[in-house]
């Protein structure tokens, strides 16, 4: 099995791609078939009750321990997005795209882009 399959996690539930039937990729994020199904249920529920809050979990209702338990999942999603961004920047550098263009695309200076991604190219 390719190593990348172990690295890919659902950005919502944080399950590994090897633990679900299907993983759908977006720009730096992924969603598993199980979360897509849950989203469908939420959207269907919104048709029935228009006051549904789409945030999951609703952190105002969680205990401090539950929020602390959730933090590593958020950090893991951030790390996955950061890794994906480094890969995209590396690909652009492989095409000899300038640091100025990359930085401009990311809303930062060329120097900031170079400092953030230089070791990846």
Automatic annotation (TrEMBL):
Query: Where in the numbering of this chain does the ClpX-type ZB domain appear?
Result: 1-51
Keyword Zinc listed? The answer is: yes
Protein name in the entry: ClpX C4-type zinc finger protein
A single Pfam family it belongs to is zf-C4_ClpX
Please provide the record's keywords in A-Z order.
Answer: Chaperone, Metal-binding, Zinc
Write down the SMART domains for this protein, in alphabetical order: zf-C4_ClpX
Q: Which domain of life is it from?
A: Bacteria
Q: Which family does it belong to?
A: Belongs to the ClpX chaperone family.
Q: Source taxonomy lineage?
A: Bacteria, Bacillati, Actinomycetota, Actinomycetes, Streptosporangiales
Q: Which organism is it from?
A: Nonomuraea rosea
Question: So where does Zn(2+) get bound?
Answer: 10, 13, 32, 35
């Amino acid at each position: 099995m390719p190593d990348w399959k172990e690295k890919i996690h659902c950005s919502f539930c944080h399950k590994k791609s090897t633990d679900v039937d299907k993983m759908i990729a977006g720009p730096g994020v992924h969603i598993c078939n199980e979360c897509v199904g849950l989203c469908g249920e939420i959207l269907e529920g919104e048709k029935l009750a228009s006051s549904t809050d789409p945030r999951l979990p609703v952190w105002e209702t969680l205990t401090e321990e539950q929020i602390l338990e959730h933090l590593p999942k958020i950090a893991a999603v951030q790390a996955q997005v950061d890794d994906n961004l480094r890969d995209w920047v590396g690909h652009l550098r492989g095409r000899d795209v300038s640091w100025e263009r990359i930085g401009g695309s990311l809303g930062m200076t060329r120097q900031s882009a170079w400092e953030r991604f230089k070791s990846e190219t």
